[in-house]
Amino acid sequence: MRLTIDTLQANDGDCLLLHYARSGSPTLRILVDGGSRGIYRQVLRPRIDQLRHGGVLDLRMALVSHIDLDHITGILDLFRDMERVQDDGGEAFCRVRTLWHNAFEKVHAGRRAALQSAAVGAALGGAVPAGLIGKAAAVVASVRQGAELRDAGERLGIVRNEGALEDLVRAPEAGLRVITVAPGLTLTVLGPRDEQLQELDEEWRRSEQAHPADPEAQAADYLNRTAPNLSSIVLLLEAARPNGAPPVRVLLTGDAGGDHILESLDKTGIGPGGRIHVDLLKVQHHGSNHSTTQDFFERVTADRYIISGNGKHGIPHADALKWLSAARSGQPYTVFMTNRKGQDGLEEMLTAFLAREAAAEPAHRYLFRREDRGFISTSFR
Q: In the chain, which end has fewer C-beta atoms inside a 10 angstrom radius, N or C?
C-alpha cells in the first residue's frame, strides 16, 4: 500500500490530490477542493496531464469541502473543461465517478434565515440582494458557483454524494458513517453534524438582534459570519497497512472551526475529549488564527501537517504556527507548506519564525514546495 498526498499551490485556497495504490490494483485518486481562480489552468490541469500520460485520468471522487471561492472554483473550472471537450466531441482527459458537495441551499433549507429573510432567501438562490458587499457578496457568488457545479456534474453524468446515504454529506445523529471507497480505504464523516447545522438558526437570531430594523444588514451579517465554513465537510481517511499494522490516518478539515472539529471527534467517539493522533492533519482554514488555538493542537496531534496559503488575508498566521510549535514543544513533526514566499509579508514572517524554531525547536521540520513545481508531496506506506 502506498498513500500519497499532493498539496497543490492553490494561492489562498486548498487543492489536494490523494493517490491510493495497492498491489494488483489501479491507483485510485481523490481530488479535494480545487483552489481559487486561475489554479485549474496554472496548476491542477498540468498535474492532471502529467498523471494521465495522454490517456484519461480517473478520479474516484471530487470533493468540495465547502463552497468558498478558494475551494470550489478550480473544481468548477475542471467540470467546465470536461464539458467543453464532451460538447466538442473530443477525447476525454478526465472522468469523475462522484462529486461530494453540500449545496448551500440544501444546507440552509428550512432554516429560520431562509424562511424569514427575503434577502437571505434570494442569496440562497444565487441572487445578490441590495446592500450586500464584501464577504457577504462573495458568499453569494460561491452559492452561484455551487449551483453551476451541481448542474455541470449532472450533465456529465457524475453521481452526487455517492455513498453518503443522503442528500447531504454529514455525520449521523448517532453512530458513525464510514464509507468504504475501495478495499482498505475508508472515509469517516465527522462533520458537519446536525447540531452544528442547527447553529445556523442561532446565528440568524444574533443577526436579527444586532440589526433589528435593517433586513439588509441582517442578511449581510448572517452571510458574513456563517459563511459556509459552518457546513464544512470534515473527514477522517484511513488506509489499511499490511500485516495488521495500524492504518494511515489523515484528518481532512476544510475550513471548519477548531471547536467544531474537537466537538465532532468527541461526539462520534473517534477522539474522546477531542483528542486524537493522526499521521497527517490538513490544518484547517489555511492556518488562520481565527480557526485554531494552542489547545486544538494539543488535542489533535500529527506526525505531519499540511498548510496551504500564500499569505493573502494574513494566512498562514504567525500565531497559528507558534501555537502548533508550543503545543508540540520537544516533539518531532514535519509541516508541508505550499508557499515560502507570497503576499502580505509572508516571507518576512516565515523567516523570523523559522529562525526562532531552528534555535528553540530543532525537532520541528518545515518543508516548502519548490518554486519550479506546482505541488509538494508526502507519502505513507
A: C
